[in-house]
Amino acid sequence: MDDSPTEHFEHAEHAEHVAHLGDKFLVKVSITIAILAVAAATVGSLETLETAAAIGDKNDAVFIQNKATDNWSFYQAKSIKKNAYDIAAANGSPLAEDYKAQSKRYDQEGKELLAKGEELEHQTDAKLESSERHERRHHILTVGVTLLHISIAIATIAIIMRGLRWPWYSAMAMGIGGTLIAIIAYF
Question: Could you report the per-residue pLDDT of 13-30, keeping only the tens digit for each?
């Protein structure tokens, strides 16, 4: 929900026109609209930040998973070499001791790669969880900012109708609801 960069000028202009009317209630409505516009802009910015964070964490998860996949390939290669040396050592060759030493080396390297691979998998899972948390917040903030935008439109009806009060009360309730929903996104 990108707003026009000049939208706040429109709200200021409406408030100026209303101020000239001399009706204190309409001035309250204009101030309410300005406050709701600030809240909507703030929640909209938070929504954008959460979207970017979700995408960033998802990209990080893919990158880490690629590293984990490479690591598992190295692990499998070491395991194959270890098994080949185990077979060669079992054949009773004069180089059996060398083959056992090589097998032991590949076994140790394989254990290190196994530990590293598991750590990379945990990092991938953590990034995916973080991405999901940001995505959930984004969806909640979308509802909040939408309610704030609707509340601005409804409050404007109070001005157009020259002081009709129910639209202002409805806008206030909806604006408070949108703000509370936005706050809930972080709990």
Answer: 665 666 666 678 888 998
